[in-house]
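Researcher: Hi, I'm a grad student and pretty new to this. My advisor asked me to get structures for two proteins we've been looking at. I'm not sure of the right format, so I'll just paste the first sequence and hope you can take it from there.
Model: That works fine. Here's the first sequence with its structure tokens right after it:
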Amino acid sequence: MGAIATEVVSGLAIAQDTRIVLTVIDGLGGLPHPKTGQSELETARTPHLDKLAAGSVLGLCDPVGVGITPGSGPGHLGLFGYDPVRHQVGRGALSALGLNFPLQPGDVAARGNFAAVDAQGCITDRRAGRIPTELSAKLCARLRAITIPGAECFVQPETGYRFLLVMRGAGLSAALTDSDPQTTGQPPRPIRPQQPEAAHTAELVNQFIAQAHRILTDERPANAVLLRGFAERPSLPSLTELYGLRPAAIAVYPVYHGLARLAGMTVLDTGTDFAAEVETLRKHRAEYDFFYVHYKWTDSAGEDGDFDRKVALLEAFDAHVPALLDVEPDVLVIAGDHSTPAVMGAHSWHPVPFLLHAKTVFPDQTTTFSERACMQGGLGRFPATDAMPLMLAHAGKLAKFGS
């Protein structure tokens, strides 16, 4: 399939009292383990997903494009129906939106990691051992003592090792490179301007980083900071404006709240595990007609290179599939925002498994939910932006095109 123009789909959208549940398993896709030749999904015991696959239609979707490794932002935006190339949103803005930080015009936001560096200043752990949020909050409080002439700095903890940095002042620009080299064994990179007008902002951010490292020098394991995804406040048409939906989001981590708010979704209060998320879905079923439900933990395991833990987390998700079906969605999609193979320990460019279940599907011949099964699925391989028209059509929310 080729991507359908958003304006075409938007023009066909009609109101129907039907429910769509888009369930995103973060970092879903994997690669075969060198010892077994089986991916995480193929290794996991997932009887409920396999049974669901037997009555569904499957495929593989490219979050951004063939060969492109996506971040979480573009990976989600494609599934929500937005062209992630046309609508590029920096991670810093998503973090700010996720924390409900009041970004003002001209503010520059960045996503921060607390990290560990050795005596030579080289990164030994980009995530500082995944420190708990409580410690991150204490470290953020210390960083709020930083003063930069010409800019006001706001530092807020996100979740775990993550934090938000917002700089406010005259003439700031988000056209900056990242300090995070995305690997260990190297020092953090100096922030550099991508455009001449960003040179002053780069200077200010480098001052912040230098002061942060002096403050954290005696901390263990978090004695450094890494910054990436510099961005200003974005603007997107909402899913209500585009498709007339009443959309809601159910997620634990703040950055996914930011993605949801960017798309005009109501972020529902929920608990800290997936059982609580499913209960939140059940509780609010009648109030909304589009639900985005996020399962985060598989991505973290993949990034840590922990194949067995990712397998266990896929099996844990599988146990919740009957409860998702008990909500009786008219359309249920199980998808991922990107692949995070544990054998790579990072996001990758590989297409992501996709399952669509509805009364109106023509089930294909797949009987399991895995990468190889999805290769044989009836949907084939398609761009993630086609997911939204597929969901809308099977929910009866698209009118006929043409006479």
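Researcher: Oh nice, that was easy. Here's the second one.
Model: And its structure:
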Amino acid sequence: MKIIHQRVIIASFSLALLIGLTILSVKFLQGYRLDINKKKIKLTGLLVVKSQPLAAQLYLNNKLSGATDVSLSLPEGKYEVRLTRPGYQSWSKKITIKDGLVTQVVATLWPLSPDLSKITYAGVLKPILSPSGNEIAYILPNSEAINDWQLQPGVYILSLSPRGILSKKKSRLIARNSSSVNFGEAKELIWSPDGSKIMAVFANQVFLLSTTSLPDNLPLLDISYQKKSLLNLWKKQKEIQKKALFEKIKKPLSSTLAEKIRLIDVSSDDNFLFYQATGSAQLMPIIKPPLPDYGHLTEERDLKKGSYYVYDIKNDKNYLVFSQKKVEENTNFWWMADSQHLLIAQKGRVSVVEYDGGNLTTVFTGTCEPDYIFPSPTGKDIIVLTSLNPTQTSFYNLYNLSLR
């Protein structure tokens, strides 16, 4: 009986210990911590900081507090988070820690001196990104460099590789110059919405090119008489795509957005809309009660005409990126592949910004035009049409700007 009694005591003690440890674990995850100085348990908030690249130094209110990736228990209050790493531009954000809640910060640090590598060598005209963002169509004009590189002048398509490394081997010729057609004289190239065709527009001629291979475009046929109707068809196809996107948003918010915005770009995961307000409006919440804030992002649901915003479809959140006064004319915007950053293309400058308008960072300055700056599908690179030789400003090539 003594042995049985001892076993009962041990089993009861083990069960009580297990229950106690479980309760302590739950309380720990909820943010409860032992304050040794005050000799009591208090509720705190949890800050989780991650960065790309790793091992960035973390400063909280200008005090070194560790290195990423890191989790810290902090008293409720406001903090300034700053991340630094040698060779990279610093990152900072003001956050609010709340007791019992987890605030996660995911930061991307951009290099001080991104690497530039040449993609094309014989000069490029009129590059344009495909609707999928996976290819760039461009014109290779007739020049002395053509013979040096043993290339044929015409229209090419450059595939953006999964690793973001581009080379002339990735390009394919889909239409070459002929005795009657010189693509170097084309005014523009236009992709079809599905990416299967490219329209090469001249002053007095129009050619519709297949994006598959060179033989599919032989012989070259002038479709000038079809240009207007074809462009109208493509416009309707884009409107159908836009309508399908807005159908993912519940009414009446979808109606407000459709009437009061100019849609600029949609993120690769289709969860974020980047747009400019065409009129004043208030975005009424469609998720009730609203989802908790992220702790470091500030919503703005009162639209002001001309300002730029990001709408998060999944979480029904809206963020101000730029007021109208802060955006220069002839600025182009693209979503980057991570769906967390926007690429800003301006004359002579390339920048990136977080989708809530934070950490606006210049990553490249040089000879470049906003129409010829593109994001890569990897999110690690930017494609820029530029000339690094100031004496050869008319001879532009595509370069890969590495951001990682």
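Researcher: Is there anything I should tell my advisor about the second?
Model: You could mention this: The domain at 117-230 is CATH 2.20.25.650 (N-terminal domain of TfIIb).
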